[in-house]
Design a protein that fits this description.
This protein is an alpha/beta fold and 295 residues long. It contains 12 helices and 9 strands. A 7-stranded mixed sheet has the order 5-4-3-6-7-9-8, sandwiched between helices.
Length: 295
Amino acid sequence: MESKEVNKDEKKTVFALMKWASDSLNLAGIEDSAFESRDIMMFVLDCSMPELLIKKSQILDEISIARFKKIVKKRMTHYPLQYILGSTGFMGFDFKCREGVLIPRFDTENLVVEALERTKSRKTITALDLCCGTGCIGISYELLRSEAGHDDDQVTCADISDFAIGLAKENVEKLNASVDIVQSDLFTQFEDTSFDLIMSNPPYIPTREIFKLMKDVRDFEPHLALDGDQDGLKFYRQIIDEAPDHLNKNGYLVLEIGYDQATAVENLMHRAGFSQIVCKKDLNGLDRVVSGKLM
């Protein structure tokens, strides 16, 4: 009898539950199932990675077990983990994240890095993050510039989506960022305003390619933030065409792109009068960011 009780308790340990979750998520076709199992357990226990390692033999109470399994089963439907947990990491900061707004990606950090590199010699900057979503680009840029001693920058994040505007405001408050949030369809609310830097990760997936995306993205993330029209270049054309009217002399435009869009976007920037156009690759060796300077 005692042996059976011990076996039952073993199944309730943090380690055993994480193993069950990892196996279950893997069977459901979730990549990085072991990492996601870990993240879910840290969320349920409200603990850090070192604390989780210490707790791995701990037996969980029934309420925690039920909560853990409920989250795992929801993730098995491919509902994004970031939406379930309510936040995600970006540039070392924790951003609130929920359904209706595009989930920040690690690849997009390349855009922030390039923007910081392009403007590192500028004492103060006025910057605009178009199609801001959670606000992760503009907020991270402002926070990192501030950490480097540039406290007088003026950064604005803009998006057309009500969901995005609300969430971006929450992230500004959460991270104590000095960033303004404006609801705008691209430049419509900035008719008489110009900036030293414009950053954007616009929708760039060709409409016909949307159905090929992973189920997590295709079925749950907002198509408004993904669909770049027939060739994926609709928003690049609009932004690049109008950007010169909203950039100060020697201002920069920094754009995230799809892996096969570098040449097209570079050509658009050349025709709009930009110089010093460069394309940077991500850690997978794929074209990811195109930037240029308006002389």
